[in-house]
Amino acid sequence: MTIIAHISDTHFDGSERALSRVRRAMTYLRGCNVDVILVTGDLADHGDVKEYNQVKAELVADVPVLLLPGNHDDRAAYREILLDSDGSAPINQLKRAGGLLFALCDSTIPGEDDGLLAPETLDWLKGVLADSEEPVFVGLHHHPIRLNNPLLDGIRLRNPDDLAAVLRGSSTARAVFCGHAHAAAAGTFAGLPLIAAPGIFSTTRLPWTTTDQLAWANTFDRDDVPGVVFHVVENGELTSHFRSIAE
Ligand SMILES: [Fe+2]
Ligand SMILES: [Fe+2]
């Protein structure tokens, strides 16, 4: 059995608030018996080097911590601080952790909030899935399906059909994990489970939980508690458990 602790959207912005919410989550997770921690993007809020130094210092544990970029991240600063490399090409990473294979895709478009899997990323993923003889768990920041928040759905992945074609052509893709929506949510995509992690930094309101007209100014609930999804993989089967992280 492998247990993946999936969190997202830490948005380190130099504030005490962001730092304390991440510390609360990481302290909780370090006390849990998990095999890998996955953080699906928007690690930094402005993409500054200083913010990545916080990422590097805070998103650590005795188990592997897998990271991927979101629309608030900056590829060059991310590479410089977290990967000790340079360049602005998509940050696509194949990782083995907890005995599982993770294909972590860069769905960002520099300077934009919505997402796109570039042709080179789709080719890379296709190759990873074709070369693997075991299940592969795919991670990306942007949700490829509508999650019923009109604002967030307006900045979802632009080319879900391209991703779906790659996944449907594979016998090894097992599930898709994403962030970006700041919402714990589950659906299906290309015949696979699709799970979005809650946001550490904030939670998006749903249209049916408020009488307010939702706009960017009031969509993010900053008082809601951070959360985590525990994905349990056993004999190739996946179950996902959602938990809030109380103070
Ligand atoms: Fe975010
Ligand atoms: Fe995002």
Overview of this protein structure:
This is Metallophosphoesterase. One of its GO terms (molecular function) is hydrolase activity. InterPro entries: Calcineurin-like_PHP (IPR004843), CNP_phosphodiesterase-III (IPR050884), Metallo-depent_PP-like (IPR029052). By secondary structure, the protein is an alpha/beta fold. The chain has a single domain, classed as Purple Acid Phosphatase, chain A, domain 2 (4-Layer Sandwich). It contains 7 helices and 13 strands. The chain has a 6-stranded mixed beta sheet, with helices on one face. Strands 3-2-1-12-13 form a 5-stranded mixed beta sheet, with no helix packed on it. Strand 1, helix 1 and strand 2 form a beta-alpha-beta unit. The longest helix has 15 residues.
